[in-house]
Design a protein that fits this description.
Elements lengths: L5 E4 L1 H15 L10 H15 L6 E4 L10 H13 L10 H4 L6 H6 L1 E5 L17 E7 L3 E9 L7 H9 L21 H6 L6 E3 L2 E3 L13 H22 L2 H9 L8 E9 L2 E6 L4 E7 L3
Parallel strand pairs: 1-8, 2-5
Antiparallel strand pairs: 3-4, 4-5, 6-7, 8-9, 9-10
Helix pairs in contact: 1-2, 2-8
Length: 293
């Protein structure tokens, strides 16, 4: 078997094209000439904001009060959470119209706000009717922590953190600042956010780091950057692994009766949570990793 194979790869571009395809499934169109890293930021920003649809147990705070006229909307959301259904219809309209929008409340404190409508919105039937009062909640992989129903605009209400602290302290204990028990009183939290300045919150002698992961001076989520960088590094490592094992790929293809040219064009392909190196002339797929989101 010849070892004179020339391997042409550009896995990061392939990866970003996959992210573009995923964004298009969510109704987002990305320009072909868009910066690759920006596409990655946009994808992970929207993924964070959309809430991945998984089955979660609903937990309700002791302080929770919902006006009677919104109880039907609340029950609808709770049922959709329990079933692991897509909650996008209840989220901000900007989830559908502005995938790059930075949600300060989510990026800072990890809290989503959901509209309590039960019928389609008159201007956009992809979402429910907008409501003034909103459900504020925090989500993790297993639970939905329903904090309270409050008016639109309560984006910097420290009571959100107080409710999480009082009801589910273990769920946010990983965000406690070690060896810190007090901080100077804060001023206008939204003003800090607008300036891209990070804040800590003190509740009953416990100081919390940003529960939502925090944000940069540009107000982009730190978690979004971390996820983007992690997958960028992973994809480049997979590309190096394939380039260093071309002869093995060719041998595996030949065991299936395939003949590959000495000049190989290999693309990264993602299918059903698995990542493959696909040789383009033969369409031979070589499994190289699982996609662990």
């Amino acid at each position: 078997m010849s070892n004179n194979y020339v391997c042409e790869t550009d896995f990061y571009t392939d990866w970003v094209n996959f992210l573009k395809e995923e964004l298009s499934k969510w109704g987002c169109t990305i320009e072909n000439n868009e910066d690759l890293e920006k596409v990655s930021f946009t994808y992970f920003n929207l993924r964070k904001r959309r809430l991945m649809p998984v089955v979660r147990e609903v937990l309700i705070s002791k302080e929770f009060v919902c006006p009677s006229q919104y109880l039907a909307g609340l029950e609808l959301i709770k049922e959709r959470i329990r079933r692991g259904e897509d909650l996008t219809p209840h989220l901000s309209r900007s989830v559908l119209t502005d995938p790059s929008y930075n949600d300060d409340l989510l990026n800072d404190w990890g809290i989503h706000h959901l509209h309590l409508g039960i019928v389609p919105d008159a201007r956009d039937n992809r979402i429910v009717e907008r409501t003034g009062p909103l459900l504020f909640a925090r989500f993790d992989d297993n639970y939905a922590y329903l904090i309270n129903v409050l008016n639109h605009g309560e984006w910097a209400n420290i009571d959100f953190i107080r409710v999480l602290h009082n009801n589910w302290p273990t769920s946010i204990e990983h965000c406690r600042a070690e060896n810190v028990s007090s901080i100077e009183p804060l001023g206008d939290i939204q003003a800090y956010r607008d300036a891209g300045e990070q804040t800590f919150i003190e509740i009953d002698g416990v100081v919390y780091l940003p529960i939502g992961g925090g944000y940069t001076q540009s107000r982009l989520s730190v978690e979004v950057i971390q996820y983007s960088d992690y997958f960028s590094a992973m994809i480049r490592e997979l590309e190096n692994r394939v380039n260093n094992n071309v002869s093995k790929l060719v041998a595996d293809a030949q065991t299936q009766g395939l003949s590959l040219p000495e000049k190989l064009h290999i693309k990264l392909v993602v299918e059903k949570e698995k990542i493959y190196a696909e040789e383009q002339s033969s369409k031979f797929k070589w499994p190289i990793a699982n996609l662990d989101w």
